[in-house]
């Protein structure tokens, strides 16, 4: 069993304000084009399962995105017609049965840190989901900001099928907020599959696409977000996250402060001057 990343030590990824165009991922495909980063899980013969190392590298990459000026939006997807089948049975599940409690807790905290990193990075994340989206893969989708799927896709929160609680990687906090307490309870208690069309009706998917158009539509959405006011988009993401724990009055005050900060940006002034000139604003993220 690999324990290289279990203690939670970050990989040596590019430092503060370092562009990621030249970053070479070890455990998935990664590229940056026109300010959109594409992360593609790439073990198609096994439906793209996660390993200890890929968990940790994803966590460290999303942490680094905070300091990546060349990335304004992210597409998260999988190769070979599937999104992610969850933790690899042979590389993760089997070895976990041999760990003691401190080792188990180190692992579960690391996987939770991946979700925290996804929620904390300022760039909007668009998940492009086809085929199987199961276990930890379902949490990667859930931690994204938008989800585009296909009618043939199936999402499974499988934890109870292997004798575990549904409260993994934040599922009991994130899923009810997205689809409601009753529907989340059904999925987490039964582990049944959520089909693509039902996922859209329930609000889990933003859009159902054909398999042929899925990647293009996800990329188009990411490109649209990347061309927008990226500082303001990052503020929107931060407030969507922070306001879960606020009362209404507190949230209104927090948004007043956030919006005042955005009003001091050059992008806000660009938008005004473009409107006066009857032009489309070109945002630069400052």
Keywords:
286 residues, alpha/beta, 2-enoyl-CoA Hydratase, Chain A, domain 1, 2 domains, 6-stranded mixed beta sheet, 3-stranded mixed beta sheet, 9 strands, globular, disordered N terminus
Describe the structure.
- With 286 residues, the chain is of the alpha/beta class.
- It folds into 2 domains: 29-226, 2-enoyl-CoA Hydratase, Chain A, domain 1 (Alpha-Beta Complex); 230-276.
- Helices cover 46% and strands 14% of the residues.
- It has helices spanning 52-64, 89-96, 101-120, 136-143, 171-179, 181-190, 196-202, 211-226, 230-242, 248-263, 266-276; strands spanning 29-33, 36-41, 73-78, 125-129, 132-134, 146-150, 154-156, 193-195, 207-209.
- A 6-stranded mixed beta sheet has the order 1-2-3-4-6-9, with helices on both faces. It has a 3-stranded mixed beta sheet with strand order 5-7-8.
- The radius of gyration is 19 Å and the shape is globular.
- 37% of the residues are buried.
Structure in a nutshell:
By secondary structure, this protein is α/β, with parallel strands linked by helices. 46% of the residues lie in helices and 14% in strands.
Following the backbone from N to C, one meets helices and strands in this order, namely: EEHEHHEEHEEHHEHEHHHH
> At the third CATH level, what is the topology name of the largest domain?
2-enoyl-CoA Hydratase, Chain A, domain 1
Strands, count: 9
Number of domains: 2
The DSSP helix count reads: 11
**Rg:** 19 Å
In CATH terms, what is the architecture of the largest domain? Answer: Alpha-Beta Complex
What strand order characterises the main sheet? 1-2-3-4-6-9
N- and C-termini, Cα separation: 45 Å
Strand % is 5-15%
CATH superfamily of the largest domain: 2-enoyl-CoA Hydratase, Chain A, domain 1
The first-level CATH class of the largest domain is given as Alpha Beta
Low-confidence segments, ≥5 residues, pLDDT <50? Answer: 1-15
- Helix content range: 40-55%
Outline: globular
* Classification by helices and strands: alpha/beta
| Main sheet specs | 6 strands, mixed
Average pLDDT, to the nearest integer?
Answer: 91
């Amino acid at each position: 069993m690999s324990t290289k990343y279990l203690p939670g030590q970050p990989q040596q990824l590019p430092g503060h304000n370092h562009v990621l165009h030249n970053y070479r991922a070890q455990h998935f495909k990664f590229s940056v084009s026109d300010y959109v980063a594409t992360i593609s899980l790439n073990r198609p013969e096994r439906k793209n399962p996660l390993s200890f190392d890929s968990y940790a590298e994803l966590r460290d990459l999303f942490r680094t995105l905070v300091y990546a000026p060349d990335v304004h939006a992210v597409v998260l997807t999988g190769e070979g017609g599937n999104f992610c089948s969850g933790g690899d049975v042979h590389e993760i599940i089997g070895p976990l049965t041999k760990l003691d409690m401190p080792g188990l807790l180190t692992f579960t905290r690391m996987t939770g840190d991946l979700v925290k990193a996804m929620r904390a990075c300022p760039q909007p994340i668009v998940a492009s989901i086809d085929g199987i989206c199961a276990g930890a893969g379902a949490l990667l989708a859930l931690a994204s900001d938008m989800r585009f799927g296909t009618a043939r896709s199936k999402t499974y929160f499988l934890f109870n099928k292997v004798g575990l609680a549904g409260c993994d990687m934040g599922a009991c906090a994130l899923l009810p907020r997205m689809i409601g307490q009753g529907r989340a309870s059904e999925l987490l208690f039964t582990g049944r599959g959520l089909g693509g069309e039902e996922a859209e009706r329930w609000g889990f998917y933003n859009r159902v696409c054909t398999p042929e158009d899925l990647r293009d539509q996800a990329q188009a959405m990411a490109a649209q977000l990347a061309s927008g006011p990226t500082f303001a988009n990052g503020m929107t993401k931060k407030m969507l996250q922070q306001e879960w724990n606020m009362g209404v009055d507190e949230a209104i005050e927090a948004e007043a402060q956030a919006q005042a900060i955005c009003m001091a940006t050059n992008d806000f002034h660009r938008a005004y001057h473009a409107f006066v000139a009857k032009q489309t604003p070109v945002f630069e993220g400052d």
